[in-house]
Write a structure and sequence with these properties.
GO cellular component, one term: extracellular space
Family: Belongs to the Wnt family.
Radius of gyration: 25 Å
Number of strands: 8
Strand order of the largest sheet: 1-3-2
Strand content: 15-25%
Helix content: 25-40%
Main location: secreted
Mean pLDDT: 77
InterPro entries: Wnt, Wnt_C
Keywords: Developmental protein, Disulfide bond, Extracellular matrix, Lipoprotein, Secreted, Wnt signaling pathway
Amino acid sequence: MSDVWHGCTTPTSSSVEHYKNGDHFFSTSCHRMCFLARRNTLNLCVQRQRCFANSTDSCIIKGCKESAFLYAITAAGVAHSVTKACSSGMYSSCGCDRSLTGRPSGDWAWRGCHSNVKFAGVLTKEFSSARVSKTGHVERKKMNRHNIRVGIKALSQLLYRKCKCHGVCGSCELKTCWMQHPTEFENVGKRLLTKYKTAIEMVKTKRGPSVLRMKDKSSQKPNPDDLIHFRSSPNFCDVNTRLRTPGTSGRVCNVTSSGIDGCGILCCGRGYNIQVLTEMVKCNCRFFWCCHIKCDTCKNTREIYTCK
């Protein structure tokens, strides 16, 4: 491991916490993006809803598009977290990016704390490479490393110039500007989601050092901005012991929804069972001075829909 990695590691293992933040970014960003998706064409969300396993890794099949998205958005999340930490002075060995200086224009100058995405990218690649080295097959390692770079690049491409005015009585005699990373990680997630939809399919080669080549032989290699995968995604409808996916039989679904939680999508066309559930619940609660609440007990009947 390089000196960059050792220089950033603290006794409190804060760097490891940033990697955990990356996993958290994947979970929360994916959940929110899927929640906002009103159409049923977002395959990532459909698969995520159908799988519903205890861990993300069980839902993400190695080598497929969803795996590509996972590695990219996790790397972007780590880089985002490290960038924020460097800017706030959490690490003694990193801080603001000082490479931008001078006055490119007459009315503004580079000042302030530039987001150090470059340093964060190096650290993220170091940490991620250690994880990737345990993934086994050479083609998976190559795919995962490529998608990690795509995730980091997506963050760096969203850097923007932020400026502040200086002058007497609110005038703007001089503006100081710095490069700022996006504060809302969801913007990075949306960018990577677009790349997920257009991910490039690769095929494994039997000979040569490249290991993977594009399925479309008209192109030599994928763009550095493109996510890549070499395996088709399963539909997660049926139990698959090899892939450790539980299927959707028995899953509770929403009969009134046309979204990814609806019985139409979740049950994969098999239909659903209706169970009538009667339960006793508290009702007609009243507050008495002072100080207690008295409730009646009512019978409540509701229907539960589960996939066949």
